[in-house]
Specification:
alpha/beta, Dihydrodipicolinate Reductase, domain 2, 2 domains, Rossmann fold, binds NADP nicotinamide-adenine-dinucleotide phosphate, single chain
Length: about 400
């Protein structure tokens, strides 16, 4: 089978190509707007060049994308470019009968994608959207927890990360700096009391215990697509999403926003004009590429997730909690951000071999079978544990 990966030069896209080739044994066309950046990313990750065709392809150039799909006939497309490309790419994919997955639509885009459901059902093609770590693995875990309970009341999701460097250096974020800036400038929307409710930026402060070495961390509401879909699909009254930022990163991101790096308005600087957000993005992309050139010798950075599902089982209050832990994998020069790249790789592969085949557009909690998925994660050293706590009443 053959998969087309868009945004393959990126932090996640390159790792998705690596997983598709090495773990899923799928042939890949790896593309981004820069052939040079894509080639470098694939080479630095030591992916077998015989298994990958590279090409320059702008995901916004729908005419060229259409031509590529017609010529190359991929079974599926994993869109790892920025989420602003999701709707356009889907339009071309459904027209060509190509299955689709992506890394998330940041709430509003995700809902617009799901509105396309009928078109996909009519075409008999599957789109499973929002398939990274979170959204993605956390949706699947929430779905698994909901199935274990007779009744779900609340699902609380948490994400955190960090490193063991002796000096608490701010690591760069495990996801696009553009999305980080969106998260710090757009109001989060949570599913509370069975409806979407807008919250203040960085509100909902709550201390949560995450797996070691994080331990207790302050977490905050962040705009994400999990509360956009999980409440309705899993019949929960409340679904919240919080990030527990390492303190250094929280301060860095706040400072970037205060300095005006969120602005898309071109600014005269030195000999040229460029918008602060585009400049920041270019610096981030260079840092990601340079970071892959010197592989670390040992695990030193990690991503952690916690999913609490509260409800009832056999008439008593019960809680199902999932912890998901990922460290960087020095053997494959893969950062902990691989936990965002592996899920779209697995789902693309499963679409290609018809393990996922429901026509329509769905988020991960609907189409992804949790336990086989968790086992695939485990095969890559991404550790999922399930903790089922049932209260026994003696009255
Ligand atoms: N669900 C999750 O858990 C999760 C986690 C992390 C990230 N994400 C989302 O995933 C997306 C990618 O994140 P990332 O960390 O990999 O960001 P990134 O490192 O900035 O990579 C995105 C890549 O997309 C490429 N790209 C941008 N526009 C494109 C276009 N029009 N056509 C083709 N390629 C294009 C860029 O490469 P060129 O400049 O070379 O084209 C860039 O390398 C973001 O939207 C992010 O929010 C989701």
């Amino acid at each position: 089978m053959k998969a087309l990966v868009l945004g393959a030069s990126g932090q996640i896209g390159a790792l998705c190509v690596q997983d598709l080739v090495e773990m899923c044994k799928v042939d890949v066309i790896a593309s981004s707007r820069s052939l040079e950046r894509t080639k470098k990313a694939i080479k630095d990750l030591k992916v077998d060049p015989n298994k990958v065709t590279t090409m320059e392809l702008d995901a916004k150039d729908l005419k060229k994308l259409d031509q590529v799909m017609k010529k190359e006939k991929p079974d599926c497309v994993a869109n790892c470019a920025w989420y602003q490309t999701n709707l356009g790419v889907m339009e071309v994919a459904v027209k060509n009968g190509v299955h689709y997955t992506d890394l998330g639509g940041f709430f509003d885009t995700c809902l617009k994608q799901i509105e396309q459901n009928k078109k996909w059902i009519d075409a008999g093609v599957n789109a499973t959207v929002g398939l990274g770590s979170t959204p993605g693995m956390t949706n699947v875990a929430g779905g698994a927890g909901a199935k274990k309970l007779d009744k779900v009341d609340t699902i609380d999701l948490y994400c955190s990360w960090g490193n063991t460097l002796p000096v608490k250096e701010a690591g760069w974020p495990g996801y696009s700096i553009r999305t980080v800036i969106d998260e710090f400038t757009q109001n989060p929307i949570m599913w509370i009391g069975s409806k979407h409710q807008k919250q203040p930026i960085l509100s909902g402060e709550k201390e949560v215990i995450m797996p070691d070495p994080i331990g207790k961390v302050k977490s905050y509401y962040i705009k994400h697509s999990e509360p956009a879909t999980m409440g309705k699909n899993l019949r929960a009254k409340n679904v919240t999403f919080r990030i527990g930022f390492p303190e250094t990163d929280l301060n860095t991101f706040k400072t970037l926003v205060q300095l005006g790096f969120a602005s898309a308005k071109a600014l005269k600087a030195g000999t040229g004009e460029v918008s602060p957000i585009d400049y920041l993005t270019a610096m981030y992309q260079n840092a990601i590429l340079a970071g892959r050139e010197t592989p670390p010798d040992e695990p030193f950075e990690y991503d952690m997730f916690r999913i609490d599902c509260f409800g009832e089982k056999s008439g008593t209050p019960s809680t199902v909690t999932y912890f998901i832990e990922t460290w960087n994998d020095p053997k494959r020069n893969a950062s902990s951000a691989r936990d965002t790249a592996v899920p779209p790789a697995i789902v693309s592969w499963w679409q290609g071999v018809k393990k996922i085949k429901e026509p329509g557009v769905y988020p991960a909690e609907v189409t992804v079978d949790p336990y086989p998925f968790f086992k695939e994660l485990g095969r890559r050293g991404i550790k999922v544990t399930e903790h089922f706590d049932v209260v026994t009443k003696f009255f």
